[in-house]
Amino acid sequence: QVQLVESGGGSVQAGGSLRLSCVASVGIAGTMGWFRQPPGKGREGVAAITTSGGSTAYADSVKGRFTISQDHAKRTVYLQMDSLKPEDTAMYYCAPKYSAGIWSISGLYNYWGQGTQVTVSS
């Protein structure tokens, strides 16, 4: 079973930046995704990266502002978040996906971490 630990969340003002980290207990062969869940809403895909080829995908709402990257040696996936907006406020989670399918479908992912809270004030 894979264990994931997210960190890097916090409270920032609109326009600020944060970098989230997700450390996996083992190397992942597949896709690593970042998801978020705003208060009272469902979980939505933010970004994903294939662990072998490094191909990336982003939700339209974060394109141009967020960047996903990885460090294989550290078994870590990062989410650099710039130009943050109040609507980015959510609990952020990472998870691996081993199967084919659309990257933004949360049901295809396994072994969710505990999440890290991001709060953006206006």
Description:
The model has no long low-confidence stretch (mean pLDDT 95). By secondary structure, this protein is mainly β. Helix content is 0%, strand content 48%. A six-stranded mixed beta sheet has the order 2-10-9-4-5-6, with no helix packed on it.
Shape: globular
Mean model confidence by pLDDT: 95
Oligomer: single chain
Number of strands: 10
Largest sheet: 6 strands, mixed
Rounded to an integer in angstroms, the radius of gyration calculated over CA atoms is 13 Å
Strand composition percent:
over 45%
User: Which structural class do you get from the secondary structure elements?
Assistant: mainly beta
Widest β-sheet, arrangement of strands:
2-10-9-4-5-6
Span of the ends, CA to CA: 40 Å
> Roughly how much helix do the residues carry, as a percent range?
under 10%
Which stretches are poorly predicted, pLDDT < 50 over at least 5 residues? none
Task: Output the helix-strand order.
Answer: EEEEEEEEEE
Number of continuous helical runs: 0
Throw out a few tags for this protein.
single chain, 122 residues, mainly beta, 6-stranded mixed beta sheet, 4-stranded antiparallel beta sheet, 10 strands, 0% helix
Which helices and strands appear, and what pairs or packs with what?
Blueprint: E1 4-7, E2 10-13, E3 18-24, E4 31-37, E5 44-50, E6 56-58, E7 66-71, E8 76-81, E9 90-97, E10 116-121
